[in-house]
Description:
By secondary structure, the protein is an alpha/beta fold. It has helices at about 5-10, 50-65, 75-80, 100-105, 125-130, 155-165, 175-180, 215-225, 230-240, 245-265, 285-290, 305-315, 345-350, 365-380; strands at about 65-70, 90-95, 115-120, 135-140, 165-170, 190, 205-210, 270-275, 295-300, 320, 330, 355-360.
Amino acid sequence: MKFDTKVVRAGISPDPTTGAVVPPIYQTATYVLEEVGKDKGFDYTRSTNPTRQTLETQLAAIEGGKHGICFSSGMASVDSCMKLLKAGDHVVCSDDVYGGVSRHFNKVLTRYGLSFSYVDSCNPSKVKEAVRAETKMLWVETPTNPLLKVTDIEAMAKIAKEHGLIFGVDSTFATPVYLRPLELGADIAMHSTTKYLSGHNQLIGGVVITNRQDIADEMKFIQKTIGAVPSPFDCWLTMLGLKTLHLRMARHSSNAQIVAEFLEAHPKVERVTYPGLASHPQHAIAKAQMSGFSGMISFELVGGIASGKTVMNSVKLCALAESLGAVETMITHPATMTHVEVPREDRLARGLTDGLVRISVGIEDAEDIVDDLRQALDKA
Length: 380
Ligand SMILES: Cc1ncc(COP(=O)(O)O)c(C=O)c1O
């Protein structure tokens, strides 16, 4: 099956009872046993649910993996991956991971004896230097949120193999349409399905995909034991959203290229970061390992905080919202929105400058998005 066919059809077959094209939602907590010790493969929805199972099969097939394990959020997926570790273990992690991930690592998981080193994973020698005797995992996000740094996955897989580390990739921004980390040597591909995979701002969810039987067994155990599972309805909505993933991504990507080129030429914009621009510092790696550049752009406004606020308050079509990866274009100003509580020095140290703006380019007409940004930038 070719990739686009898998997106539409993999894991989905007509309902055996009625022939329904769309699999039904099994909205049930439990299942009646035929007799003691004899069930139909399902006993309790925290452990297994047919709707979730369909989605897990579909997601694994698209990612090119054997096992998919779904969770109630992207954060629950990240947390479950970390539950593969034990007190005393150390993780080497990309330095520009989504802020919710570093908050979880630093403020929650350190309480349980895990430790983390944040390094620029665009530089393999920095990653190598950070590995210690107690390092058990390498955790990479590519492209990163919000600075869109791109990491060479094959180079990371080599380091992970040399040191016996579990290698996980948060591939939320790229999606399996443009990047399949397992094919490049990762042990785990993880997504916040809240974003492109479900695609319509309709739910919160996450998934972990792996080819390793040992990791799959452990993740399923963690899934049923901790219970951070998505509802059958959310699984069903994700399943429907997924069927158009390849079409949506093509439009997100072509629109983003147009918007990035417009911004790069605009006098009120100091710098644009988009993996599809030749000016992106890791453009060559992005081009080699991704088949498209997705829909996320960040850019630096001339005029810092004041300009940022003006642009945010002037956009009409672009939605002032914190999420990403949905059909609507969404715009965020980290200094006044997502990172407003982070002390300025810490924010700047992470490269989150006062004039930094992140756009999740939607699938509207590119001309309308550009016109909206132009009128907002004119006011900055
Ligand atoms: C790259 C990345 N990973 C993980 C997450 C967390 O996902 P969720 O919001 O579904 O918990 C996010 C959320 O923005 C993200 O951008």
